[in-house]
Amino acid sequence: xxxxxxxxxxxxxxxxxxxxxxxxxxxxxxxxxxxxxxxxxxxxxxxxxxxxxxxxxxxxxxxxxxxxxxxxxxxxxxxxxxxxxxxxxxxxxxxxxxxxxxxxxxxxxxxxxxxxxxxxxxxxxxxxxxxxxxxxxxxxxxxxxxxxxxxxxxxxxxxxxxxxxxxxxxxxxxxxxxxxxxxxxxxxxxxxxxxxxxxxxxxxxx
Length: 206
Description:
The protein is an alpha+beta fold. It is built from two helices and 13 strands.
């Protein structure tokens, strides 16, 4: 899979060799073949341990970067592609070191709109804690691969945790539909944390 560092190194070495040999046309042909391979592999760029999305309202999708010689650009969200109820009110970025996790926690009203930038491999753990949900009690683990930018939209009441299981610093953006601590940071924080609750059933498995 092209998200592997060895694959990226191979691409770079091959293109550098062709450029050194002065074969610009061949380099362009190889570049096209590599992009086709990446497109085929991108269909397997994320996996769930349950083989399907089993939590109601959860959205997992791959970003569609536009690539050129400078790198790539991807739209994280568009207001014409998401419902008004989850329009972002703020954004923030996190960097998670290899082997470390954030969560588990949940929100009563906030929808999280995570953008995994593909700098490392993550496991996203999810538990449906909504008694009124048709999938109440379901648990899922989604693997976000390095090198493949992904989106995860997590509804309120779904407990979630993310763990960096890769070897690099992991960068994740979030575009929630609620302000942290309300307007002017004078409100209540919409967050129920389970990290320090040893009796909690929400545990991150190794």
